[in-house]
Structure formats: C-alpha cells, structure tokens
Amino acid sequence: MSTVTISAQDINKLRQATGAGMMDCRKALTETNGDFEAAIDWLRKQGQKVAAKRSDREAKEGVVIAKTTADNKTGIVVCVSCETDFVSKNADFVAFGQAIADAAITNNVKSIDELLSAKAGGNATVAELVNDKLASIGEKIGVTKFERIDAPYVASYIHGAYRIGVLVGLNKVSAEAGKDVAMQIAALNPVAVDAASVPASVIAREKDIIIEVMKQDPKMAGKPDEMLAKIAEGKMGAFFKEQTLTAQAFVKDSSKTVGDYLKEAGDIKVTEFKRVALG
What we know:
The longest helix is centred in the last third of the chain and has 19 residues, at 225-243. By secondary structure, this protein is an alpha+beta fold. It has a 3-stranded antiparallel β-sheet with strand order 1-2-3. The chain is elongated and about 85 Å long. The chain contains 11 helices and 8 strands.
C-alpha cells in the first residue's frame, strides 16, 4: 500500500480553506490519503461530532443581524449563536453572521430549515459553513433564531453590538418612521402593535396575575370573583398603554404616543414587527 506524503503546503492550504487547526488538517489529509476534497468532508464530519459532544453547552452569546432586500419589501433577522463574548465580538464571527444573513436574503428563505439548506456564496450550504466554523473555533455555534417580514415597506435596525435586531413592516414607504419605530421596539420591547393584536393567551395571563395580586390585598378580602374580574378588566388599560407599540409614549418625544407620531408622519401604520435578542 502506497503512502502519500503530506506536505506543510498541503496542510496550510486545507487550513486556509476550512479554518481548522494544523493538526486536524494533517490528520484529515492522512486519513483521506491526501485527497483535498475528501479531507474537507472529513473535517466537516468531525465538526458534526463536535457539535454532538457540545450539545449540552449553552450558546447564549452571538450576533443578531437584521437586513432587508434592496426594494425594502422583505426583511429578515437572524441570530447566530456561540458560547462566549470573546468569539461573538470577533470581526470574523460578525462577518460570518453577515454572510448567513446575506444567504437568507439572496435565497429568499422563509424558515431556519430553508436557511440551513441554502447556498452561501459558493457550493457549501449554511449548515456546512456552520459545521466548518464550529470545528475551527471549538465552540458550540448555530443559527438559533430566524424571523421574516413582507410588507409594502420594511425597515431593519440592529441595536448595540449586534445584540438585538428589529424588523418593522409599514403600510407605506418611510425610512425615517421605520427607523424611529424600530428603535422604539428595541428599547421598550412591546408585546404587540396595538391592543387588538395582543394574543388572547397573553391577555388571560395578565388578568390572572392582576386578580391574584388583588386577592392578596386585605382591602379586597371577601370580594366576589365577578367583581375582581371587572376590576381586572379595567386595570388592563394600563397594560395596553405600557406594552403595546402604538399606545406607548414615543421615546423621542414623550408628550405623544407612537400612534400619534405615526399619524403625524403621514398616517403611517405598522403592519407587524419582529424583535430578536440574544439569550
């Protein structure tokens, strides 16, 4: 059986192509008898094994990237997670997150599964690139969150050091309003656009909390459940004011609500929004 000589040049070439360590590249080429493409596949398989070994480790750091198409009619926000802020703050990892977001836009994907299967600037899929990156940095990483909005106009916003990404769908074009509202959402994290769009499950939970708090108040002792339910209904107004976007005080001018601001800006309406944060 012939033995192929593995040169330092071959090892370096594989390292440059994959980002894997020198010893891993040497072993990959040795195991595949010097076949470069087979060695890449071998390293990817090792990356998958590493992913399995690290499946119990938490990946609470990472980057959140929000982008829109050139015509601003579609927006995506994606979270690419890792274990440490040392990795997440690295320019290479940020660029890696940007490349995945670009793949989502280019391939018009609608879910994480579609994104992982999409090609990212070459023959490799996003899932393969994730495994390659995992093998090279030695941390558990992955595409953990994905959201998309389609609307007449979509604004995107990234808050902080890629820690929060926001998409806002509007009924008409307004870059300024889109940015202002996106910043509002990043800062105050509303649960819905308005009271009418708050999920019934959220309303029920809030009412239950209000009722339980009242039951613990000595002044409410002995009050019938029907009365407590009516009082809770009235108290929900404060919840809607604080937790729904259009009723919130506008962060750039607290004398008006976000709804007031949007009306003044040209009767603009928010069709929907998405907010993705690390953790």
